[in-house]
Fold this protein.
Amino acid sequence: MTETYDAVVCGAGIAGISAAYHLCVTQGVGKVLLVDERPPLSLTSDKSTECYRNWWPGPGDAMVALMNRSIDLLEDLAEQSGNAINLNRRGYLFVTADPARAKEFAARAEEAAALGAGEVRYHRGRPDDPPYHPAPLSGYRDQPTGADVITDPELIRRHFPYLSDQVVAVAHPRRCGWFSAQQLGMLMLERARAAGASLVQASLESVEVRGGRVEAVRLGKGGAPPRVLTEHLVNAAGPHLKRVGQMLGIELPVHSELHGKVAFQDHLGLFPRDAPLLIWTDPQHLPWDEAEKKQLEAEPEAEFLLGEFPEGVHARPEGPGDSPIVLMLWTYHLERVEPAFPPAFDPHLPEVTLRGLSTMLPALRAYLGRLPRPVVDGGYYTKTVENRPLVGPLPVRGAWVLGALSGFGLMASPACGDLLAAHVAGAPLPQHAKWFLPARYEDPAYRELLVNWGRSGQI
């Protein structure tokens, strides 16, 4: 049996669902088949911290423009649904104990402002400083954009009393926060289905190409028609992006890294429930007592725990105000790996992450050596070398890609799905679209940029 669809989307993670939503709802493409061998949002999309931000570095304003568009779409969906996605605007809080990094905060805030993230407000303890407006615990309306850079010690202690007394500066980007990934995904999926999309749980086995263009796909187990005729195939396969590309004879320029997330019950109530996403930006050595150091020195496989760890340990409260759950993350291994499921995480991850976090939040030291039973999950950041997405046409006509969303898949998917659908439908494209084309690596000017790219924006 053979059926015909206007487009087939491979992958029912947040990227694929967003593609199907925008194809059907925004562009009115018609019949769209969403194919995944797993239930929707169950591979990596449900392993995220569910955060979003428009605080991104250059070169160019493409990432800020993309994220501003994505946040616009998130806010539109929140408005339409009575905020069923639980969108908030608590912001991100970058924290440092290094005076030199305080200057870096200002430079990064000015860069983000110049790229379109919003104005910078400095709080230095001077009479002419602008007022600092704390972020509300919930909601997203009528909040400032841009960022607050605070070096006034009194102001830091007043609004963030839980931080280490070694802290000398914080940067608080404001068009940032978090939301419910499952609610967002299911909202878009329901609306896509109502507009003509279908979901089938099946594997993509092969792609048929005739005359240099997509003609059909073959599906495996799952009760689907084994062969589907289509003129458009969207590769939104997340960590399987490369494998699906190879079905088309295309080697996509992506690799994967394993990123873990730790959740634990803060039964002592030590983590601030009103906090933004908290990010420690200084490299550090973990706090071990002398007996612990001697024990680690005697264990060669654990000796790395005594070395310097990179910046970037971060955490946020999860759930409603009375929830005891804390999410904490720290990717201190960045090796390229081949995705395998279920992923295996460093057994030291909970202890290392808690100890690193306790440098910023000293109250958490009460848990050292006695961390409540953690839950560890996570997934793969599938990414390009410069950590920017692939959105657009592939060399085979009718083949498209929406992927390499790295650690920003949830926040970027609304805009990336919108952009992909515009490509497929031949609709007008925004100026930033060219920065995400797979063909960008063929441009000598872009390759020159890659030589001295600078920061990737990854936390």
Notes: The domain at 92-177+256-378 is CATH 3.30.9.10 (D-Amino Acid Oxidase; Chain A, domain 2). Residues 60 and 100 are 25 Å apart (CA to CA). The first strand starts at residue 2 and ends at 4.
